[in-house]
Design brief:
The protein has about 375 residues and is of the alpha/beta class. It is built from 9 helices and 15 strands. Strand 10 and strand 11 form a beta hairpin. Helix 4 crosses helix 9.
Amino acid sequence: MFGFSKKKVTDSQKYIGIVVQKNEFYLSCISISENNTFRILQDHYECFADSNEFKQKLSSYILRNNLVNTKCNLVLNPTDYKLLVLDIPSIPEEEQMQALKWQILEKIDVEEKEVLIDIMQIPIKLSDDNSNKAYAVVVNKQQIIQTSSLIESARLELSIIDIAENALANLLGSTKLHDKNVAFIIKIFGNLTLLVCKDNRLLLTRKLSLAWLKKSIEEPTQESEKVDKKIESPIGLSIMDKHKNTPIKQLDTTKGKIKKLGEFESGDNVNKIHKKQSSHVIKLLVDEIQRSFEYCTNSLSLKEPEYIIYSNVPEIKKFEKEFTELVTQRVDEFKINDYLNQELIDKHKLNLVALGGALRYQNEKRSN
């Protein structure tokens, strides 16, 4: 069941993508017609207290909407897996998987019996030799078994387990940008993520850090007395270090201290200062994006993306003019109706990861 490789999808009318995050789940259901166009039937969000309530609520929704035995793609939360980048060794193909497995186990330092591992080859030849790179996805075996069991007990046919980055590549693969070399910047699960995709394939993924913050400054008291003794500082736009436990290990992210924009007050002089500071922060973000593009060109022999699109990133939206002036690519906010081949939905708040999970079935039908 656990696997990310492409495989033939049998004919069916309805398909589901589902994301489980802490005490919430998101579900997107699509139908695919005979000519392989899709229509969004439903999107659903619900909270739950524990695994029993999750099973009960999901089962109730499936029965209520006549979705029993619908094929389902479980899209994992990035906190539930590690995504590693590996060099595929120049050895006979039949020996490569075993060699990669040992590389992975050395990096994660856990027993093989505790994890499930899958490999996705990056479909780009390196410029310096005939070797390739691959993504390795590592998840906790027991956790996957438990979640899978709950979904199957809700009477869904769990046919694929996937990762959020692939789901977003599938999302782009179902739009007019499917054959373009695209950089997609999107805030998912609280993290700003950069993806480079083409032809429904993930070529690069990287975590960035850019956020509006209301930073709490603690008073210099004893450790036990710090609770509730905070001074609220102004809201600012910042670039920060990523969390140490972020599972993506591909490239280093921005180093150095936070660059605050300061207070947002009225007054021409203050606004001029903020504009200058905001331009500096946007420049830092663009530098990080450009570093990712250089990795694509130098290590993956891939041309720089033709487009930069973003979604759920109010910071870029606020300073889009400054951002656009610093890059050579066309920059657009990703509004799903604008990029689909036809007007399909009126809703403004779809879970794009869950939708991308469901759209994997459409893209695989197209490739069969």
